[in-house]
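The records we work with from here on pair a chain with its fold. A complete example follows; check for yourself that the lines match position by position.
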Amino acid sequence: MTPAPTAQPPSVAILGATGAVGHELLALLEERHFPLRELRLLASPRSAGAHLPWRGGSLPVEPVGPTSFDGVDLVLASAGGSVSRQWAPLAIERGATVIDNSSAFRLDPTVPLVVPEVNGEAAFGHRGLIANPNCTTILLTLVLAPLAARRPLRRVVVSTYQSASGAGARAMEELQQLSRTVLDGGEPVSQVLPHSLAFNLFLHNSPLQPSGYCEEELKMLNETRKIMNCPDLRLTATCVRVPVLRAHSEAVNLEFAEPFPVAEARDLLRAAPGVELMEDFDANRFPMPTDVTGRDPVAVGRIRQDLSEPNGLELWLCGDQIRKGAALNAIQIAELLQRGSQP
């Protein structure tokens, strides 16, 4: 279905308002002047009573409960899969549209999984629930889509370099604290992540599956196929946690059905929505996490011919995990619904 734009500004609730993504959602709603008539901040009972800044003042954080969604038109949920499974059905029952940032519903065939620049039309087929993809998947598909639209994509091999922000605000704080511990000559002991990230890296800490892949890697495989409507796409991923505070990076190897001139790929990515070309081969200067932290675009560079495969390209990308990888994408979906059509 393709709904008409909302006649009046919606009542909006942020579920998980006190988390890293919740804070970013709140800031982006204000920054992007999202039209709303009411904003409710919802979180667990232990966070109730806190106040968060909003439009020069502050709003209280309320404990989520059975009446929290009465009169709410739009819920931006970022409180984890179990919380979304508990409260999203109630919110939908009360008439709200839920844009969920957890993994709870992403692979449900009845739930659209949307990156607005890639498959925005899918959002209009929702039945009250739209899933926001995994952060690394969002960044990857923004770059894959314009290239795959030009030449058939056969295979993707991606290695991710994922910052502490992907594990939430407490992981970011711990990286800072444990880095100071190491610099002071102490032994870093992690309480949030399974290993210290201070001057260290480790393979992604999501649960390992019988295939030998972790959940994070399988998310990239399955979600990319769904978003790009390529169920048979050959894709493999290795995900790594690195000692970066915020913004993820990905090394991507692509194989097409035919040769893909580098200059053509570069032109396509330069013009792609949500993508910023950033490369200076003379200076050996390409995207870094510090280039994209707090910014909307996914930066891509070092686009080059794969010397091992005539039909292959290599590239590197960086994007802010909290922003485009989570909060911004959710708000762009909401903006799409408000307009009632794709840009």
